[in-house]
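User: Hi! I'm working on a homework problem where we have to compare a predicted structure to a textbook description. Could you give me the structure for the chain below?
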Amino acid sequence: MGTSEDEESGRVSMSTIFRKVLKTTWVLINVLVLIALPLCAWDMWKHNLETHYIAWFVGGVFVLLALPITFYQVAQHLENYRMPRLQRHVIRILWMVPIYAVDCWLALRFKEYTIYFDTIRECYEAYVIYSFFTYLTVYLQEFCNPGLEQMVSRKPQQGHVWPLSFVLAPPRMGEPFLRLCRHGVINYVVMRPLTTTLAFITEANGVYGDGQILNPTVAFPYLTLINNFSQAWAMYCLILFYKVTHEELAPIHPFAKFLTVKAVVFLSFWQGQCILLLVKMKVIRVKETWTDYDAADVATGMQEFAICIEMFFAAVAHAYAFPPSEYATGVQQMAPQRKFLDNVGDMFDLRDVYHDVVNFSESNRERAMRKWERIKGVLTAMRYGMQAPLGAAAQGGDVALQSIQAYSRLED
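Assistant: Happy to help. Predicted structure tokens:
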């Protein structure tokens, strides 16, 4: 018995040493590559290699540096898959780096297919926002006492921020507040694929106009406006949820997680808009070394190049924000170990997303029907008030007024 425990302890010790050596070696390789990279880029530029090929090479190096970091983190989570309901969403978030990095690297090289690469990336962006929100709610459902809805109902009223506070009434704490946050996030998950489909259709018909943000005759500015509003609302709902629950989420260090997700999603978007604006204002000029690139292509290419580089730092940030060690200590360590291949299968199980989208659609349909029934009641009461004799009309007007007031108090 003692010999078996000693052998197990020895294997754990060797595994720990091996991982430390691997991490140290990887850090040294990264340092050497980062030192050599500017020298290689300078040498290629000196020999008149076209700018976008240099960018493709430099971006590719950063992509190759980023991918192993994420793959290692995903493998570690799958090896320590003690809390599937939580870690499933963590792994989905971690996959953001490889998908963003490879997608942008390919878009940088094959600019004629940029619309397809970018829309795939942006659809996954919506999926990441949904996964992060679900990660937080699952944690609170698992560890909050009392339950999540009861906990939120006891919180002080959370109003909307300025200027939304002038036009939107604050949701009642409890189930209405949670519904607002969840529906705001899922709305982006539903809206993003719809606008992607429209982008493909308009591109096939030659009216998409990628990057032509000021051209009213193409679809790009309108689809961009819809996507931006939907994304901003989803992030806003996520912020509201965090403000209300940050104390209960403290054990999982939510701020670092929230910051890494928001930085990749939100800042990358505004980075792209700033680059596009600078190119349109000719602060950034199109050079001859970009060959057949026009102004819109240059703006898109610079955005893809920047994301390729940033994903390396995002991979490092994710490694610290979502460490596998959170699920390999304490009570979680006592959970039974699952087979690695079963964990991989669970990682790709999307039934929870499907059920949430279906519930979202059904809930919206039911709420629309209830609103319509109340509107019909108001219209009927108003018609009765106009058609009845004077005395009855006064009574009907009172009924109509009461109906309107009741409708105005309807909680979304």
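For your comparison, note the following. The chain is about 75% helix and 0% strand. Residues 2-46 form the longest helix (45 residues). Good luck with the assignment!
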